[in-house]
Design goal:
Helix content: 40-55%
Number of strands: 6
Strand content: 5-15%
Shape: globular
Structural class: mainly alpha
Largest sheet: 2 strands, antiparallel
Radius of gyration: 19 Å
Oligomer: single chain
Strand order of the largest sheet: 1-4
Distance between the termini: 39 Å
Number of helices: 10
Order of helices and strands: EEHHHHHEEHHHEHHE
Length: 314
Amino acid sequence: MKLVAGSERMIADSETNPLEGSVRWAPAKSLWIGTMTLVSIAFGPLLVSLDGFALFIVTSALTLCFGHSVGMHRRLIHSSFECPLWLEHVCVYLGTLVGMAGPIGMVRIHDYRDWAQRQSACHDYSCHRASFWHDAWWQLHCTLALARPPKFRLEPRLANDKFYAFVERTWMWQQMPWALLFFAIGGWSWVVWGICVRVSVCVTGHWLIGHFAHRQGVQSWTIDGAAAQGYNVKYAGLMSMGESWHNNHHAFPGSARMGLFPGQIDLGWWLIKTFETFGLATQVKTPSDLPYRRELRRLPEADDGCLVIDNSLR
């Protein structure tokens, strides 16, 4: 198989194969999300309260927008904008609180999947090709072990960051200080809704968006030769902080802006623009700033209105 380049962190050779491998149960991952989900189902309805539900909404929004979408995905993984290190650390820490993985783990998971999807063929796990419940089990409770995987090489800036190393080692335990604080203020209702329900809903929601964003929805672009194509899941634009505009992201992965067409709500982009207004974000990239991709094709039947990539709207 002829391989194509992905992230610079992924080092492949002639023996590397994105297709051959097996999906294996990941005990720690499975017990983590399984416990959070079971506690949510068992105690969420019993301990529901107005302030507990409000805490769930606020903490979910903060960790998903500041943390996962802007800190983890657009900054740490794709470097789509520059910001002070303290702000990056704050946002990435909030992203860790989403409950999917630590900062290095998130980069590794993302880059392995991204690299595999760019190849001419990849394992069903990497592109959410399994049926709904099958894919749920795989993504939430298992991991893919390729027979001949690429090597993952983290750049020195991240590999030598002591803060990221500490958070990576303790990412599950990072919920504990917040659980103690929530218990002191609001009792068990705040713990269940501010920690367990939030982690369960956010992690499961992340899988749901990933599942549908690689299977069905609106497309404006295709990537020639890629094993997986992205789709825009328009009804999830708001709750995903813009991450569900996944067809746009596949087309322009280095762009800080994912909602490229009128009406595509992208809260992550709005937050980055707010940072820029206060001088906290610079070198903010949009599709106009990215290198030309020969394999990118605009679908002739796409009817999205005016594409927002010109310099005046950056």
